[in-house]
Amino acid sequence: MATRFSINLIFISAFLLLNFASAARILENQDPMLFKYHNGQLLTGKITVNLIWYGNFKPSQKAIISDFIASLSSSKSEAQPSVSKWWGATEKYYHLIKSKKSSSLQLVFGNQISDENCSLGKSLTLQQVQHLASKGDQMNAINVVLTSNDVAVEGFCSSRCGTHGSVVSKTTLLKGKNYSKFAYIWVGNSETQCPGQCAWPFHQPIYGPQSPPLVAPNNDVGLDGMVINLASLLAGTATNPFGNGYYQGPSGAPLEAASACPGIYAKGAYPGYAGDLLVDPTTGASYNANGVNGRKYLLPALYDPTTKSCSTLV
């Protein structure tokens, strides 16, 4: 048994951003109760993030994602602004809940599983994605399925760049009691299929203002785009893991912590323009967060429930 609570297409084309940026402004100006807590569970305690690689990924590509996960909770003294500071903004959601359920969340990097031979083929349904997610450890975990650029997934590019949801734990089914779920995320590499939709602003958008694409901070348009979408979905998973946490709109297609702020990466953002980002003087790459091992990343704005506005690192 599985439940998919949100299908978070990170609509990247500038044509769609025009509508979404307007929606974000409306969200900030309307009754704040529209973006609210629905009395459900948030992810709390020590949660392991496991990566399930489906298809062919180079070691250098895997390192981009694994370093990002490690950066979320890094205790090392990193250059600012940092990935861990970005993730720390999600704590505001927990502070608003006046109950034991509001204890903090700690993400730790877990195991990695590789299925380079694509055991389920190269055209996956969402049910098959959930099956792949179940291969990871299921106790106190988020299992992240990452599909390579030659793997098609149901709805990929046409309606989504990734999704998150929950699946009933195998342990629960075997024991027949203690009903529990584990969270999962899927993100696809859009490099060859739809980079204008799922890897903007590192690729020319399909519609709308045609500003030049930005230089990707890790020199990989597909993987840097995956980081943006993974970051958005992680924020949504933490604050709305089972469909009754924080969100605005219908439960089947909610605006969550990051998806409520589409296309915004820095101050000054507007449709077709990601904002006034930091630029690496050596590579010319645009970014807004520093990570472990000297990494640089571009991460989405997060909706701040205390100020009722979209908040950026820069």
From TrEMBL:
<dbReference type="GO" id="GO:0048046">
    <property type="term" value="C:apoplast"/>
</dbReference>
<keyword id="KW-0052">Apoplast</keyword>
<comment type="similarity">
    <text>Belongs to the EXORDIUM family.</text>
</comment>
<protein>
    <submittedName>
        <fullName>Protein EXORDIUM</fullName>
    </submittedName>
</protein>
<dbReference type="InterPro" id="IPR006766">
    <property type="entry name" value="EXORDIUM-like"/>
</dbReference>
<feature type="signal peptide">
    <location>
        <begin position="1"/>
        <end position="23"/>
    </location>
</feature>
<dbReference type="Pfam" id="PF04674">
    <property type="entry name" value="Phi_1"/>
</dbReference>
<keyword id="KW-0964">Secreted</keyword>
<keyword id="KW-0732">Signal</keyword>
